[in-house]
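Q: My labmate handed me this sequence with no annotations at all. I'd like to see what the chain might look like in three dimensions before we decide whether it's worth expressing. Could you predict it?
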Amino acid sequence: MADCAACGAKLDEGVTRCPQCRANLQRPGSLLQIGGWVLFFMSSIPIVVGVDTAEQRAYAPLAVGIAILVAGVCMILVGRARTTASPETVRPSSPPAGATSA
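A: Here is what I predict for the chain of 102 residues:
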């Protein structure tokens, strides 16, 4: 279990909002990273098409694929930076008072 960093309430696994103070528990940047990974993998389509058409001296699909790849990588890096710079939203639960470890 974990505690909410804002109010200290106990949190169940998988919750996205604190049930007591309604604080958002998702850290910023996670959605940006997901979008970046989607772009990164989807860039393979125009790159594969671009490699085939490059033999005919048509480089536009390859350029588009590379641009999408670069955009995806940038989104991943920015998302990671935002996540790293944000304060923690949950903290590990402290053991109850008087509890001893075996």
